[in-house]
């Protein structure tokens, strides 16, 4: 199942992310991957049987950048553990790496590096 973050608010020193999909019973898997074709960072959740993918599309990146380091919570019930470590690792790896495609690399550099 794919979960798309549709709204992000910074409240009470936390980055509160909201999606229409139900996240009750899901647990943070503390892993992140990318979808370079669709310009998204994807945080993995575990439902006990399979992984669920939480998409942070390009339109959400400015909020991520502005509140880097804050606790990240999805739908008030799932704390996305190791979110920043995973994101930072990917951003560092994407810089000057053509494997992700020029458009994705450029977008990541523009938002997170410059």
Structure report:
With 114 residues, the chain is of the alpha/beta class. It has one domain (2-113). The chain has three helices and eight strands, in the order ββββββαββαα. It has helices at residues 61-66, 83-94, 102-113, and strands at residues 2-4, 7-11, 14-18, 27-35, 40-46, 51-57, 71-74, 78-79. The strands form two sheets. Strands 1-6-5-4 form a four-stranded mixed sheet, covered by helices on one side. Strands 2-3-7-8 form a four-stranded mixed sheet, with no helix packed on it. A hairpin with a 4-residue loop joins strand 4 and strand 5. The relative contact order is 0.21. The model has no long low-confidence stretch (mean pLDDT 96).
In brief:
With 114 residues, this protein is α/β, with parallel strands linked by helices. The chain has three helices and eight strands.
Layout: helices, strands, pairs:
Blueprint: E1 2-4, E2 7-11, E3 14-18, E4 27-35, E5 40-46, E6 51-57, H1 61-66, E7 71-74, E8 78-79, H2 83-94, H3 102-113
Pfam families: UPF0738
InterPro entries: UPF0738 (IPR020908)
């Amino acid at each position: 199942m794919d979960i798309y973050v549709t709204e992000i608010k910074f409240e009470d020193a936390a980055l509160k992310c909201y999606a229409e999909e139900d996240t009750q019973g899901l647990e943070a898997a503390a892993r992140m991957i990318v979808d370079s074709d669709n310009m998204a960072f994807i945080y993995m959740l575990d439902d006990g049987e399979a992984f669920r993918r939480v998409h942070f599309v390009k339109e959400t990146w400015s909020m991520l950048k502005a509140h880097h380091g804050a606790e990240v919570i999805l739908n008030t019930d799932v704390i996305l553990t190791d979110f920043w470590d995973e994101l930072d690792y990917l951003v560092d790896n994407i810089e000057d790496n053509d494997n992700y495609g020029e458009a994705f690399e450029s977008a990541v550099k523009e938002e997170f590096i410059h």
